[in-house]
Write a structure and sequence with these properties.
43 residues, 1 helix, 0% strand, mainly alpha
């Protein structure tokens, strides 16, 4: 292909990937919290 179709699409992909990784880096990490269990459910 003489119109550099693949190269253009790859460059767009790399730009989208970089933007995604930059955005992902700044998001706060979600901590998995386990619900607190009661000491004894029978009481």
């Amino acid at each position: 292909m003489a119109d550099n179709f693949l190269e253009k699409h790859y460059e767009e992909y790399v730009a989208r990937k970089a933007a995604y990784l930059r955005k992902k880096k700044h998001l706060p990490k979600l901590k998995s919290r386990l619900p607190e269990r009661p000491e004894d459910e029978a009481l």
